[in-house]
Amino acid sequence: MNIKEFVNDKNILSQYENDLRSLVEIPSVSGSTEGSYPFGRECARVLDKALEISKGYGFMTENHDYYCGSAILGESGTEIGIITHLDVVPAGTGWSYEPYTITADKGLYIGRGAADDKGPLLMGMYAMRYFRENNIALPFAVRLIMGCDEEVGSTDLEHFKTVRKPPVFSFTPDADYPVCVGEKGIMRIKLNLGKAEKAIEGLNAGTVSNAVAGQAVAVINGKEYRYKGITAHASTPEKGKNAISLMAKDLIEKGIVPESNKTAFEFIYKSAGEYLGSTLGIAFSDQNFGYLTCVASVLKIEGGNICQSFDIRYPTSRTFEELYSAIQSTITPHGFEIADSNKNSKIKEGYFKSPESREIKALTSACEEVLGYQCSPYTMGGGTYARSMPGAVAFGARIKEYADLLGDGRGKAHDRDEYIAIDEVKRGIEIMIKSLLNIGAAYSG
Length: 445
Fold this sequence. Notes:
- The chain has helices at residues 3-8, 10-24, 41-56, 118-133, 155-163, 243-253, 262-272, 320-331, 358-371, 422-444, and strands at 60-64, 68-73, 79-85, 103-105, 108-110, 141-147, 169-172, 175-176, 179-183, 185-195, 200-205, 215-220, 223-228, 285-286, 290-291, 293-302, 305-314, 337-341, 351-352, 378-380, 392-395, 397-398, 419-421.
- With 445 residues, the protein is α+β, with helices and mostly antiparallel strands.
- It folds into two domains: 3-183 and 350-444, Aminopeptidase, CATH 3.40.630; 185-341, Alpha-Beta Plaits (2-Layer Sandwich), CATH 3.30.70.
- Strands 1, 2, 3, 6, 7, 9, 19, 20 and 21 form a nine-stranded mixed sheet that branches. The protein has a seven-stranded antiparallel sheet with strand order 13-12-11-16-17-10-18. A three-stranded antiparallel sheet has the order 4-5-23.
- Strand 16 and strand 17 (305-314) form a beta hairpin.
- The mean pLDDT is 97.
């Protein structure tokens, strides 16, 4: 059976749908430790199911203490990795379909995890099936790594690296095609802007650390002030409008801010009103990534202090420590201080891989052959498993033509009615098969 016949085979697609449904039916939100299950019972249950499916297709399997698992094709000492995850974000509300099953409708597979990342996980597994079932040997083993903590902290891969040697090269189908050759570093930092006067009874803006604040509320002298902006992911702040800046500007102009807090509010207004990091003294850009982005995300009063949090995505030509030091130098003269940061995180630094490497060229060529158009490698501000594993890049599984089929706010990863298109599955499996063939040819040449 050739590749086209394999990906279009009705029995293969039926098996894929059934396998995907069996994984999506398990609400595997990464949670607290339960006994020997580091991310809770549901993540353990979905890993057991994924390993059961893998074993059923003849692959050797490994359970890495329920942090993650592996399905392995071949026995070579050299390994190529496909890094995926089984944990999902909570379904939330407002779905038009049942979130924890698979509904096949309008040419789509719809359900939580269909795109992020249970669907792509199975695409990797089915690419491996093609080689096994057609007795096609590769000059390396293929290890499908199935994690359980990608959405929370990627501690699953940290554990993997203590029990197994990382593959020589890996890709994670947890972004968009073509190849993402670089991800910006991620800094999360909280600044203490000083004691809030008693007149300021409340400040509450933003809901998550990695997004432009869409709403802001201040209670001053018993009166409530509400402001609405436009939220956007921290990697694309230009799409948003920060409610924190709107609030600070209005309160300053109306003379409502207590005198002793005016410096803090001026700083809040300026830093939340731009997204290049100029106010923090860290603005810069480089040729691989473009400009640094800096988003004011959450504003609160904590322990009587005004605390403003920032999500900073930075090009890899500067380090976390350099930016941390620059921020300290900028804020100290104002009497502000750093209250907290992700300084000790193991996944804060980004990566950049040469687009000219043989592996990147192999993936790019496969992508172009299947999709039929030029596929130039790109960089991004988002974060994937690729920053957690040496020699890894993000590659797929979203194909741009299938990205917005249900309209704004629906269908994408983390959205309501999350989906992966059936044609996207077929083309994605084909891309992965050809990518492995191309890498094999590059390694054998």
